[in-house]
What we know:
Layout: H1 32-46, E1 50-56, E2 59-67, E3 70-76, H2 83-94, E4 102-106, E5 114-115, E6 118-122, H3 123-127
Parallel strand pairs: 3-4, 4-6
Antiparallel strand pairs: 1-2, 2-3, 5-6
Amino acid sequence: MLFPVRNKNAYLVNRIRPADIQGKRPFRPMDVEQILENVVYHHLSLCGYTLSVGRNGDREIDFLAERNREKVYVQVAYSVIEPKTYEREFGNLRMIKDNYPKYVVTMDEIEGISDGGIKQLPIRTFLMQESF
Length: 132
């Protein structure tokens, strides 16, 4: 559905509801992690990146972003304070054996954590950048 845009600086967004094919988990409209993933997706898209979900064996990378023959890998998590979550998010990226930039974007205010070249960025810092 299209809506009239009165402000030239506005972006038009169409809402698409996800469908859980396997029926294991219902979509919750207020799920902060899903909202955070959508924010990251739209920011990368507006910055000119072509996006896909990365697969590395049985592991999933939230976003493989490509622009001008360069790649960037991005994992999104609400927080990586918990050791189990930290290991899952950083571990998925550690398995990738190339030298393209790798990021974990979180709501945590901690910035600059680096694990084997993988950088953690708070969402605020991430949204201020146009190139990664």
